[in-house]
Design a protein that fits this description.
Elements: E1 8-12, H1 18-24, H2 42-46, E2 50-57, E3 62-73, E4 78-86, H3 93-107, E5 111-117, H4 121-128, E6 133-141, E7 144-152, H5 153-164
Parallel strand pairs: 4-5
Antiparallel strand pairs: 1-2, 2-3, 3-4, 5-7, 6-7
């Protein structure tokens, strides 16, 4: 029986991927309105801190970048997600969730943090939908209010327990 290859894969970004990353997303976690300077991600890519999700495109018979996450993990195992983006005008929640959960699974951080502009509804909904992320509060960074999200192993375990709990009791 032949094994079928998945239509997507994840890998670290290389310097050759930087041009494709700049052209990929209209809306990113750090620039949800598509305005502003696109992050170059050069330093992060050199340090292996950009994870890509590629999809197989049957028309061109090759892999193409569909999403990315720019991250950093400190010595004390705290993961910071600095930026993320997907192809298209609106962020694709499934791709972002896959990348974030892959980082958490592979790095095993004690906690993870990320920041999203309060007015970036799509991005806040995506983060809220990832098991274990809770909104810690808000901060003001001129000219926007920013939501601070935090993930811990305990909150992730609680989210799993809650989702598995019976909904009806007799």
């Amino acid at each position: 029986m032949a094994t079928q290859e998945l239509p997507y894969r994840m890998r670290p970004a290389t310097l050759q991927d930087l041009l494709a990353l700049r052209q990929l997303a209209a809306s990113t976690l750090s620039h949800p309105d598509g305005k502003g300077r696109k992050e170059g991600h050069r330093a992060a890519a050199q340090q292996g801190e950009v994870l890509l999700l590629e999809r197989y495109d049957g028309r061109i018979r090759d892999w193409r970048i569909a999403a990315f996450v720019d991250w950093h993990i400190r010595v004390d195992d705290v993961l910071t997600i600095r930026d993320a983006g997907t192809e298209g005008e609106v962020p694709h929640s499934g791709m972002v969730k896959q990348l974030v959960m892959e980082l958490i699974r592979s790095l095993s951080p004690v906690e993870a943090t990320l920041k999203v502009r309060v007015d970036a509804t799509d991005w806040n909904e995506i983060v809220q939908g990832i098991a274990g992320f809770t909104r810690e509060g808000s901060e003001y960074r001129r000219p926007h209010w920013i939501n601070v999200w935090r993930w811990t192993r305990e909150s992730a375990a609680q989210a799993v327990r809650t989702s598995r709990a019976p909904r009806f009791r007799r």
